C-alpha cells in the first residue's frame, strides 16, 4: 500500500495505518524540525520504512534525525533497520525485550514453528510473515537512547512513559506547539495471544491523559491503528468500547 503523508496539525504529519486487518501496519508520525525530523515508530518492516522515507522526501520535510518507539511490539519497530542514520529512542523496559528479540532467528520457517508451538501467536506471526517478503539485511534494533520516565528532545518534543495493559513500555509523545498527543497503542487491550475475556480499552489511562493534556492545548489524540481522533472522538470510542 502506497500512502502519502498528510499534515495533521502544525508541524505534525501523519502516514496512515493500513485498514486491511491482515496487514498489521500502524500509522507513523513525522514531526518536522529544521534540525532534522522526528519520526514516531519505525513501520512494520524495512519496506514500509522506505515508503515513509520516500513520503517524507515527497512532502519536502527535513530528513529524519530521531526515531521514537512508542513500544516494543514488532509492527512498531521492525522497520528500524531501514533508518540507519537516526538516533532511536525507547523506554528502558522495551530495550531489554528488544535485545532478546534481536537474538531470534527470524524467518518464515521460524514463524511457522512458533505458531505450531503456540497457536495463539497465529494472527501476530502471520502478520509478520505478510510484512516480510524478504529477510535479507533484517535485524531488530534496540534503542540507542533509553529513558525511564520522561525525556524532552531538542525542539520541544516530549516523550513520556505511561505503561498500561498493552505493553509495559508504552510511551506517548506530545508536541505542545501543535496540540498533538501521539498515543501509540497505550490504551489498547493486551495483545491477542495474552488477551482474556473482559479485556478492553484502558479507560482510566485515557481519562488521566485527557486531564494531563488539557482541552484548549491538545486537540488531537492519535493512536496507531485508527485515523487521527479529536478529543471528543476518543471519548466516544472509550464510552462505546
TrEMBL record:
Query: Which UniProt keywords are given for this protein, alphabetically ordered?
Result: Hydrolase
Query: One Pfam family name from the record?
Result: Lactamase_B
* Species name: Nonomuraea fuscirosea
- Transmembrane segments annotated in the record for this chain: none
Name the PANTHER family for this protein.
ACYL-COENZYME A THIOESTERASE MBLAC2, METALLO-BETA-LACTAMASE DOMAIN-CONTAINING
Gene3D superfamilies from the UniProt entry: Ribonuclease Z/Hydroxyacylglutathione hydrolase-like
What's the protein name?
Answer: Glyoxylase-like metal-dependent hydrolase (Beta-lactamase superfamily II)
* The keyword NADP belongs to this UniProt entry's keyword annotation: no
Q: Which SUPFAM superfamilies match?
A: Metallo-hydrolase/oxidoreductase
Q: Name one GO molecular function term.
A: hydrolase activity
Which InterPro entries is this protein grouped with? Metallo-B-lactamas, NDM-1-like, RibonucZ/Hydroxyglut_hydro
Amino acid at each position: 500500500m502506497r500512502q502519502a503523508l498528510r499534515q495533521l496539525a502544525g508541524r505534525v504529519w501523519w502516514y496512515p495505518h493500513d485498514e486491511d486487518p491482515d496487514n498489521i501496519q500502524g500509522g507513523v508520525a513525522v514531526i518536522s524540525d529544521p534540525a532534522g525530523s522526528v519520526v514516531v515508530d519505525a513501520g512494520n518492516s524495512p519496506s514500509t520504512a522506505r515508503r515513509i522515507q520516500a513520503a517524507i522526501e515527497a512532502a519536502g520535510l527535513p530528513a529524519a534525525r530521531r526515531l521514537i518507539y512508542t513500544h516494543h511490539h514488532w509492527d512498531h519497530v521492525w522497520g528500524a533497520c531501514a533508518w540507519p542514520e537516526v538516533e532511536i529512542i525507547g523506554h528502558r523496559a522495551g530495550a531489554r525485550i528488544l535485545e532478546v528479540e534481536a537474538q531470534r532467528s527470524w524467518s518464515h520457517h521460524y514463524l511457522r514453528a512458533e505458531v505450531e508451538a503456540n497457536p495463539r501467536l497465529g494472527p501476530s506471526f502471520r502478520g509478520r510473515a505478510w510484512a516480510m517478503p524478504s529477510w535479507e539485511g533484517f535485524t531488530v534494533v534496540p534503542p540507542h537512547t533509553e529513558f525511564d520516565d520522561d525525556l524532552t528532545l531538542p525542539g520541544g518534543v516530549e516523550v513520556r512513559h505511561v505503561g498500561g495493559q498493552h505493553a509495559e513500555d508504552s510511551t506517548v509523545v506530545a508536541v505542545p506547539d501543535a496540540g498533538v498527543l501521539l498515543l501509540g497503542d497505550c490504551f489498547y487491550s493486551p495483545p491477542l495471544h495474552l488477551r482474556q475475556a473482559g479485556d478492553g480499552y484502558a479507560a482510566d489511562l485515557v481519562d488521566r491523559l485527557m486531564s494531563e493534556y488539557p482541552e484548549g492545548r491538545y486537540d488531537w489524540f492519535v493512536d496507531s491503528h485508527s485515523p487521527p481522533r479529536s478529543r471528543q472522538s476518543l471519548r466516544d470510542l472509550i464510552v462505546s468500547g
